[in-house]
Amino acid sequence: MTSQPGRLGQDTNGDIYVEFVRELEISIETAWTWITDQAHIERYFPGFKLDARPGGTFEIWFGGVCEGPAHVSGTISQIDPPSSIGIGASSWQLEVLGEHQCRTIFRDTLNFTPDRSRQDIALAVLGGWHNYMDFFTAAIAGEPIDFSRPEPDYSQLDVQGWHYL
After folding, report:
1. pTM of the model
2. Gap between the Cα atoms of 57 and 50, Å rounded
């Protein structure tokens, strides 16, 4: 499995986010199915329940030792199949690269709290979503997934966008 690091960015509102980009050898419609169909989601993110429709709901239970809240829920804020979906503070954008090639861009807006440093929160979120993005691409490729593997230590990586913190 090829593992690509995430990055930090800042949107026009000043919000800081983590972002992961994956280029896949599948159509945008197939990628959309992997992102929004519950049977597919369960293969790479068993703690994620999604009702992918306008006004639908989602629930995420993060397994193992979790740096943030162990459970989050909310509603689908935006959906435009097969190009984009907004899930709480997270979103997926999909772009066609070729007939059977697409790019997925996953983004999660960070929520900073006064009890932890901004860097600690960013490191935890980057590490956690990194694993799920790797699980996502492994599931698509039909590779086995080790859900018990440790999160990458982002404190040891040269992450694009640290200056936003």
Report:
1. 0.92
2. 6
